[in-house]
Specification:
With 141 residues, the protein is an alpha+beta fold. Helices cover 48% and strands 20% of the residues. It has six helices and five strands; from the N terminus they run H-E-H-E-E-H-H-H-E-E-H. Helix 5 crosses helix 6. The longest helix has 24 residues.
């Protein structure tokens, strides 16, 4: 299964903010949309990603104010991305080695979606269910 197949099921909706937004504004959008990370896209270009982990480690633990701090102060700029044609094994390896939970999907340097560790795990479970069903059918024939 590929990233594109996950996006075709999940949808390609992407939520983004600007690096000049406050962290509080970013968290508000994340809460409203029930997402764990938000992309920072400016003039159609992916500039970074802000996750709940960034907030916890760079604002809460450092006793900063989310209403005063700007997104660009804590966002991750070295964003790990994937292509629509990448397979799930590659995505799992990236998420594990790079210790990220969200992968923006880029096509021709344009963000066309985002997948999470949850999306990848769900897809792998479905593949395993299908494999088990096929094996059971084969055995009982």
């Amino acid at each position: 299964m590929t990233v594109n197949q996950i996006l075709s099921t999940k949808g390609k909706e992407v939520y983004s903010i600007l690096s000049t937004n406050t962290v509080y504004e970013a968290l508000t959008v994340m809460s409203e949309k029930n997402i764990g990370a938000i992309l920072i896209i400016e003039d159609g270009v992916l500039k970074g990603v802000l996750s709940e982990r960034d907030y916890a480690r760079k604002i809460v633990l450092k006793a900063k104010s989310s209403k005063k701090a700007l997104v660009h102060e804590i966002m991750e700029v070295a964003v790990v991305t994937v292509k629509p044609s990448d397979n799930l094994d590659y995505c799992m390896e990236l998420m594990s080695t790079k210790r990220v939970r969200h992968l923006p999907v880029l096509e021709n340097d344009t963000v066309i979606g985002i997948i999470s560790i949850s999306d990848v795990v769900k897809a792998i479970i479905e593949i395993q269910k299908d494999t088990i069903q096929h094996l059971n059918s084969y055995i009982t024939q």
